[in-house]
Amino acid sequence: MNKGPSELELTVGQLAQRSGTTVSALHFYERQNLITSWRTSGNQRRYHRDTLRRVALIRIAQRVGISLADIREALAALPDNRVPNRRDWQRMSQRWRDDLNERIRLLEQLRDDFTDCVGCGCMSIDRCALANPFDELGAHGAGPRRLLEGKSSLRTVEGAERSGQASS
Hints:
Blueprint: E1 9-11, H1 12-19, H2 23-31, E2 38-39, E3 45-48, H3 51-63, H4 68-76, H5 86-118, H6 145-149, H7 151-162
Antiparallel strand pairs: 1-3, 2-3
């Protein structure tokens, strides 16, 4: 009598070990409708072996910053909840390409411009292209204005100044 799972199915522990993911992460992915399992008569989870590919896709997409909501949406678009094949992965990666390119652009800007900002630490240095272009915050006083006044109040003031609505 064969008491172990068939070659086409994995226990949650086997899936965790093979995918390099924790059991709790797999349970989370399942609650998020990213992967599915079924229960044995003994109420144990079983996963189809192809779930390994789905978990790999989820982990890769997460690693580059794709949200679980976007991953779920892409996986939900697959017919019959099937495992993504090469063509599916190409479509998904093309779909995420613009977002990833924008993230890369912002990270490159941060890498290239961040040195000037941390020189004084006040984040209102007159040449900081990231947090304070054209020293707009200098008009609010000395020191780290975003920290002292709060980001949301400064956005309101900055927006009013740009539109010419600030009162003197």
